[in-house]
Amino acid sequence: MKNTQRALWATVCLIVILVAGCAALSPQSTKQETLEERVKNFMQAQIDRKWSQAYSFFDASSRKETSWESYLSRPRKLSFKRYEIKEITVLPPGDRATVKVTYDIFMMGFEFKEAPQTQNWVKENGGWFINWSVPTAQNPFSPQEKQK
User: What is the CATH number for 125?
Assistant: First the structure.
């Protein structure tokens, strides 16, 4: 009787371990589906003008660079109308991705259709977040340092 119970418990434990192991081994397409949902939710937050929700998709470096208060206080002169995800590329080892989207925006009385954008997404704490750091453009009229 005791051996039968031990064998039963061993079998149950083995099944639990195998199921947990299979769940942890998710294919690349599952990662893309998860990322795709995040992109969709981020873009929809912008369409709905839910700026605090859109800010929640920012990665740690973007939140460090732009505070929540300053992001929410920005004047919003454009409206997002529609978007389409064109391509999602998860880069090895799977913690970075580029997402190419197009979107229609309305700004200052004009509608711009299918404006392209490449977004950079990073995985933090098991979830996907957009790296919204905007590179600073160099002023072409500022004096350049002479190279030696």
Answer: 3.10.450.100
Is the separation of the CB atoms in 73 and 52 below 8 Å? no
**CA-CA-CA-CA torsion for 33, 35, 40, 44, nearest 10 degrees?**
150
Per-position pLDDT tens, the chain of length 148: 566 666 554 444 444 343 444 444 443 444 555 899 999 999 999 999 999 999 999 999 999 999 999 999 988 888 999 999 999 999 999 999 999 999 999 988 899 999 999 999 999 989 999 998 755 444 455 455 444 4
Element of type H or E holding 124: strand 110-124
The conformation of residue 28, written as its DSSP 8-state character, comes to H
Look at residue 84 and tell me if it is in a domain: yes
Q: Are the C-beta atoms of residues 68 and 57 closer than 8 Å to each other?
A: no
Q: What is the pTM of this model?
A: 0.68
Let me know if residue 97 belongs to a domain: yes
Count of domains for the chain: 1
